[in-house]
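Can't attach files on this board, so I'm pasting raw text. These are the components:
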Amino acid sequence: GQQLNQSPQSMFIQEGEDVSMNCTSSSIFNTWLWYKQEPGEGPVLLIALYKAGELTSNGRLTAQFGITRKDSFLNISASIPSDVGIYFCAGQDSGGSNYKLTFGKGTLLTVNP
Amino acid sequence: DAGVIQSPRHEVTEMGQEVTLRCKPISGHNSLFWYRQTMMRGLELLIYFNNNVPIDDSGMPEDRFSAKMPNASFSTLKIQPSEPRDSAVYFCASSFLLTKQPQHFGDGTRLSIL
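---
Top answer:
Structure tokens for the assembled complex are below.
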């Protein structure tokens, strides 16, 4: 089955630093999504990418859909304590079952004030 | 706008008991998804409904698991009988596929089977 490799698994940074995380896949996806999950809550959508090469920003967050359709990255600039959480990438199947999302294992972000 | 609503938020029960998890999708969404999240396996899709019809239940672990969607505003995930290895956080998500709208998640049900 499809697999997503998300890295790093965890990050410990100081407030104000920039953060970068990425996902790679053995398969092509036609949509990449980035979610953030905080304790006791469900994943919340941050950014959706629909075209290869697309670069999209949402405030301090920027994400790109790789040209090969097999990778994506998420950058957070000038991190703040409320950025703490688990960040998940998800790829949407490009086959007939185009509803299906495959999730990475997540990147746990800790921001020290 | 109300998001995806799940109940209960927490459930603790003894093995062998029947467990029913409930979900109300976002109004107007035509697709509903049940996921299970564990430390070991991450987020796994269990079953997917489109227009209230189950489309793919290949992720349902065993016959002990069943899901229904009697109408567009309500779905249940049932485990009978429950086992300790079913302990996990169960999420419901909904979307409107025709517009390629991404899935929006509820806050989950944390299930503990003793």
